[in-house]
Amino acid sequence: MDIQTLNELHVLALRDAERFPQKRLLFADVMAQRGKHFVGIMGPRGVGKTVNTGASQYK
Questions:
Q1: Domain residues of the chain, as ranges?
Q2: Alpha helices (H) along the chain
Q3: First vs last C-alpha separation in the chain
Q4: For residue 36, what pLDDT is reported?
Q5: Global pTM?
Q6: Could you tell me the CA-to-CA distances from 45 to 18, 29, 53, 59 in Å, in that order?
Q7: Cα–Cα distance, 10 to 13 (Å, whole number)
Q8: Alpha-carbon Rg of the chain, whole angstroms?
């Protein structure tokens, strides 16, 4: 796959992701509970699955 095709797919993925809200409410729910948690997050490219939430300050 050439770079032009990859770029076009990237742009399409970003446009598709615009329909999702920007808020990430799961972090607050997990931090409000005690104990250890395992959370799986899935979604299309560009929706913010990997976000620096500053979670390291809560360790």
A1: 1-35
A2: 3-17, 26-32
A3: 42
A4: 81
A5: 0.39
A6: 11, 24, 18, 28
A7: 5
A8: 15
